[in-house]
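ok here's Cupin:
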Amino acid sequence: MKLVFDKDDFLANYWQKKPCLIRQGFVDFIDPVSPEILAGLAMEEGADSRIIESQTDTESGWLVTHGPFEEYEQFGESHWTLLVQSVNEWLPDVGDLITPFRFVPDWRIDDVMVSFSCENGGVGPHLDQYDVFIIQGAGSRHWRVGERQSMREYQPAADLCQVEGEFTAVIDEHLQAGDVLYIPAGCPHDGIALEPSLNYSVGFRAPSKAELLLQLGDIAMQQESLQERYQDPELSSEDISWEIADSQLSALKSFLKDALTGNDIDALLARIISQSKRPLPEPELPTTAQQVPDLLAQPNAFIEKASGARFLKLSHTEFYGNGENFKIPQEALATAEWLAQLQGSKPASELAELAHLAPQSELIAEMINQGIIYLYINES
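and the structure:
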């Protein structure tokens, strides 16, 4: 699929600044999943799914039911929405929706949530703490979107956050199949299905400072160079013991600043942002470097990056994937870059041309064992 719009203009004027509507961003859009398949996925034990109903006969007017679901008849034919998270990790065709948005850094990509709404279905006016592109699939939906503003949030039902009061909409439009709506984090929005509708939300994580510091603290405990202990500035016997002196605060802040600007911080951050949202599925048996050439030479063999996997380049010889550092020898740099750029399925024969030497095969084997990439045979 090709996203038709001016990416440079979008990045300069809209990305993380204000919402916008891209009419027919996907021309002749074809849904990669049907409502029936999505409903079947929501019956699976491992799928993260929920149904949100707007009900006039409840005190709050809203009800949330979590999957897995056994059947759907009790929900009726209107005023409810089925949402399934990370559908890209279950259905590769849905994962292909990420590719057109790779003008944004790979590490920012979170997942693709798919929703099916009956007529008048929606989840109410709310804020998201991430940037999102919403692709309209089958059906149509009326969207109202406001610019970023401070609004009070509340929970009308368990696991459902909405905003109180009205917001001024800068976008108030009906979306048809192929239209794309971009909503930055913190912008209030509300979508109501005008008829049975599918929507695909390509989300981009926008971690808070607190979240990054928490992750950094966890991973820093494993870094020997960051085990240095705090030392007091020069003290005096006349200092007041129960008073926090400015010199002490300055010393603490300098101590932390040194940690955040030291030589090791780049690697720690790369480990954090290369981690997958969920554990990657590792193969039952490890692959050895010696096996790689034969595996790639299999007829109809294809290679694909696992859904949710990231493989990121930090420096000329350092790549990060699944939270791990890959030290890349010169002979394997072209192989590493090929794997980092991998989108969708590619014939394994293309990679075989870059796997003649032992370092290349060792890299491929390690990435298979980490669950970052996998090989499969297309029998069709």
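+1. The chain has a mean pLDDT of 93.
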